[in-house]
Amino acid sequence: MIETKSTLRVRYAETDKMGVVYHANYAIYFEMARTEMFRQIGLPYTQMEADGIMLPLVDLHINYKRPAHYDDLLTVVTQLREMPGVRIRFDYSIFNQEDQLLVDGYTTLAFIDTVRNRPTRIPENVRAGLSRFFENDTKH
Question: In whole angstroms, what is the distance from residue 135 CA to residue 137 CA?
Fold first, then answer.
């Protein structure tokens, strides 16, 4: 399993008139956290794209627990619990500066070969980069 933490401060533009984070912004926070996870482990999205691989979103699920507010310092915990195949699932939990759970959820993305414009199995270089985190995973 891989787990990373990313922090961000809620900007004024991300809130509604009441100073509460607009619900759709959590999907953006999820995206920021998963691309940061890949960057932190040495697999930046820019390299995958240069190698002809895209990762479009195929599923998004968000559970809203408590609202985030303007100027809150948020921590997004991102987990990759299984070695991916054609699809890759990320799990998220977002906490405020008081360590209260605000949101949790997950996204599922698919590996797409941009030349064929078709789904493809996880590229070998990505598998190799992730394998060190899943050495005890006997399913893959």
Answer: 6
